[in-house]
Amino acid sequence: MGLMDEYRSKLVTAEQAVKVVKSGDWVDYGWCVGHAYELDKALAARAEELTDVKVRGGVTLWMPEIFKIENPGDHFTWMSWHFMGVDRKIYEMGCGYYGPIKYNELPRYYRNHVKDVDVAMFQVAPMDRHGYFNFGPQTSHMMAVCERAKIIIVEVNENMPRCLGGYESEIHISKVDYIVEGPNPPLAQLPSAPPTEVDKRVAELIVSQIGDGACLQLGTGWMPNAVGTMIAESDLKDLGVHTEMYVDAFVDIYNAGKITGARKSIDRFRQAFAFGAGTNKLYEFVNDNPGVASYPVDYTNHPSQVAKLDNFISINNAIEIDLFGQVCSESSGIRHISGTGGQLDFVQGAYDSRGGKSFICLSSTYGKKGELKSRIVPTLTPGSIVTDPRTATHIIVTEYGMANLKGLSTWERAEAIINIAHPDFRDQLIAEAEKMKIWRRSNKRGSQTVVA
């Protein structure tokens, strides 16, 4: 049978395809901009026939139709590997949950530990002349999902960019059970907000620590994007990219002539990433671009792989940091906000890189003017999750300076961290540090800790 004959034999409507889903099934929707779209609508239309259908996804950029129905929890449960705003809304509805991960391990979870994948349904780029459907900008763990799935349904979207490998970046038609030709929706947009003055100050401090030929990883959030914007405006040259998430800032840095990848020890001249989300600027850039390489996340994120790249610079956000150097980037108390994602992967990998640095950045305060609260606290809020243990944390950055925690005792850490807290909270933090017996009377107050 020829490829087109096989294609036609597997082509069905979304309504026909989702009939394979049964009550009690585990269904995988894919990842990020590749989440099921028309298939999701068709499954929502079957809600009254179904109970206890458990759906996995992550980095969710639009509300799935299965959670727009009346009493969705009576029929569906959402399990996200990484929370975004939409995931938090489903969580607040009482039918959404988080799957704790070290992101580099996610393919292994599917291959060795995940209970079931009864049906996998997700968007792909159109089939090429060799019979392959490209996963688009979310190679991530998709091959591992497909290897575990009992039934695979691909939803073709002509707007999905074809992201070259790397490896494990596409699936052959012979492995697919059903093909649905969707309505070709535009890809979800994830624009970055204009940087605040605090973002700009943090970015200035970090960019001052980056040298020519460095290899970059930018995490999600406004501050890493602000750093990217400032790098694009800098005099840096011959930068490389090896990142979990590919964002608009990388396109800006490349277009400014700063990224060549010439000094990378692996994937030379190519920007490696596990998944991407941004605006059309990004999707058009990565489409059929041999200068970027889409890899599974156990390649991009594994600390041993990151460590192979000299002068690796990892830049990530935090919600709260305590005086011991513990970093929380995923919850506020027991309220889940984000996820571990690959932050710990890159914190460890960057420090192991020759000349590498891991930056955790945050504003010193949050809240409305007159009601400001400190993001630097004596101990993490009860229930808050430790994303990076104190032994892994390298450099913390706020608008008041940088603190390199490596090699410091508990009292030295307390001093360094307090010195980059908002001045209005420093005396209170010192008092708490004294109660916790991590403050020496000889400590200097008010000096700014700078990375050497």
In words, what does this structure look like?
The protein is of the alpha/beta class and 452 residues long. The protein has two domains: 3-181, Glutaconate Coenzyme A-transferase (3-Layer(aba) Sandwich); 197-435, Acetyl-CoA hydrolase/transferase C-terminal domain (Glutaconate Coenzyme A-transferase, 3-Layer(aba) Sandwich). 27% of the residues lie in helices and 20% in strands. It has helices spanning 3-10, 14-17, 38-45, 85-92, 106-113, 142-148, 197-207, 222-232, 248-255, 280-286, 297-300, 303-306, 343-352, 410-418, 423-435, and strands at 26-28, 53-57, 76-80, 96-98, 119-124, 132-134, 151-156, 170-172, 178-181, 215-218, 240-246, 271-276, 292-294, 312-317, 320-322, 327-328, 331-332, 335-336, 357-361, 365-366, 373-374, 376-377, 395-398, 401-404. Strand 12, helix 10 (280-286) and strand 13 form a beta-alpha-beta unit. Helix 5 (106-113) packs parallel to helix 6 (142-148) and helix 8 runs parallel beside helix 9.
